Amino acid sequence: MTTYDIYITIEIMIRTQVYIQDEIHKTLLQLAQEKKTTFSNLIREGAAEVIKRHYGKISPQKRALRFFANPPKMHRVRFSKSASLLIREERD
Asked: Collapsing DSSP states into helix, strand and coil, what is residue 58?
């Protein structure tokens, strides 16, 4: 019998509205067509790049995951064994 590990990532997204210059809008639409992606995905990639530059190589999500995997003693709580293993797998 073969076993498979299946990982599912769920991302919660919030709908928002931004104002950008007409030329940037046109260029992003053209780039989205060239890359066979969506305009929204390019906006998300750009936002992720800004966050990466601000916070360094570790995203806020990974930083939080590391904190929960190895919290300071004053913040430690007991997780179930499976939750602890899941967190440790994700941080490595």
From this structure: coil
30-58 residue pLDDT tens: 999 999 999 999 999 998 888 878 877 77
**Separation of alpha carbons 63 and 61, rounded Å:** 5
Distance CA 87, CA 70 (A): 9
Contact 63, 55 (CB under 8 A): yes
Mean pLDDT of the chain: 80
Domain residue spans of the chain? 22-91
Cα dist from 65 to 6, 39, 86, whole Å: 20, 29, 11
Two tokens, residue 72: 């300071």
Q: What is the pLDDT of residue 89?
A: 73
Q: What is the DSSP letter of 73?
A: G
* pLDDT score of 20 more than 80: yes
